[in-house]
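User: Show me a protein chain along with its predicted structure.
Assistant: Here is one chain, sequence first, then structure tokens.
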Amino acid sequence: MSNPFSDKCVGVVGAGTMGAGIAQVAASAGHRVLLFDAAEGAAEKGIKHVQSGLEGLVARNKISENRLVEIVGRISAISDLKALAPANLVVEAIVENLEIKQKLFRDLEEICKPDVVLATNTSSISITAIGAALKRPERLIGMHFFNPAPILKLVEVISGLATDPKIADQISELSAYWGKHPVHARSTPGFIVNRVARPFYAEALRVLEEGATDVATIDAVMRDCGRFRMGPFELMDLIGLDVNYAVTTSVFDAFYRDSRFLPSIVQKEYVDGGLLGRKSGQGFFDYREGAPRTLPASLSANNSPISVKVKGDLGPLASLADSMSANGIMVERTEGSGVIQVGDATLALTDGRSSTQRAFDSQIDNLVLLDLCIDFSAPRRLVIAPSDNCSANALEDAIGLLKAIGGDVSQIGDVPGMIMMRTICMLANEAADAVYLRVCNEDDCDTAMRSGVNYPRGPLEWADKLGCSIIVDVLDHLASFYGIDRYRVSPLLRRKAILSQRFF
């Protein structure tokens, strides 16, 4: 990959964690970097932060001492904004305030050469709005890194209405040269990641609000069933509940209070109480010294079945039946509606209805619904929700079968769509809507979610693997159950479902 800014000087404004990280990325790629911060001594402190991080890499034999000296030697602290005059590219990473950013870029237009490219690391402010105050808004671009910038690969390249497409192409090419995964997006609220990721937190908070289970179990379900690196509650604690809540509120307000992005009353209560996560010592989990570790709810079994009946096409559950056979359980296959019968229990994959509603609609006694799992052939955890009329004996039969397959089994309350299924469907729906509204294309959307927030699959890849029609059914059932607009289906997703099409 070529470097359109080869041998060019890069300026960075803001020497906090993000600004220092961006300076390190540019210096590692061979650029001379000028680092400025309005706070006295902050630029020097930022360089020390870079050096400290690199020393850790040297200690782990990831880089040589010479490489450390080379990278740090390319970064110069400057105390006057006017010293950025030689820069060919200036990236700002300062406070998220429209007026302050506009003033900075107006000053830079006067200081730097006419052909300078001005880039903002904003995560939420409109590029078009920032550019409205400039003489040359066509040379303004969004260059949104993810923290920590030297490690995380994603860079969202954001174009405002006035941004020159050639500038966007140059910054994408430069980001790739710097070892990043650039994705292009229109300047809309939340861009790609902060928009599409909202349901990952929102659905977990909704399940918690409804009392279906506790935070440790929800996190375990998302890690074990979805293979996400972190559950939503431990991730919110890491980010900071105040920061996460502020982003959600910002997106909600920017979309004219669209119910899809409605903030959580539960999360607000924690923020109002100063329970902000790791940085305050308490959040959804307790991080104080000596605090007991909160464990997910897991069930034990008193019996193990000898045989089961598989009725019809199980769809995503098909590999679960193969796991039964592999574990010595005799599987009898007959025609039917895609369910598993074991003893008195009937098991089925959730379709967005509550277990009780589906049992009533289908006239099934002792229905036990299963949540979605990324790999039913080797599940780390299986999650069940029995209908209200499910007998204790039938529930024991279901638990015994699932424990015989291996892994943990957790029971949650009878909430529609359960945990994984409703979250994945909402992520896929939001991703589809971003594509539908021309915020980004399909490839960039999935790349952004994998590289920016380490999702095990892109949301649209999930949609293809699960089937768009299944996702639409789940969302329609959720919308019907709750009677709110939150679960409305993206027109693009519904069109894909109607024609049995895929995104890729």
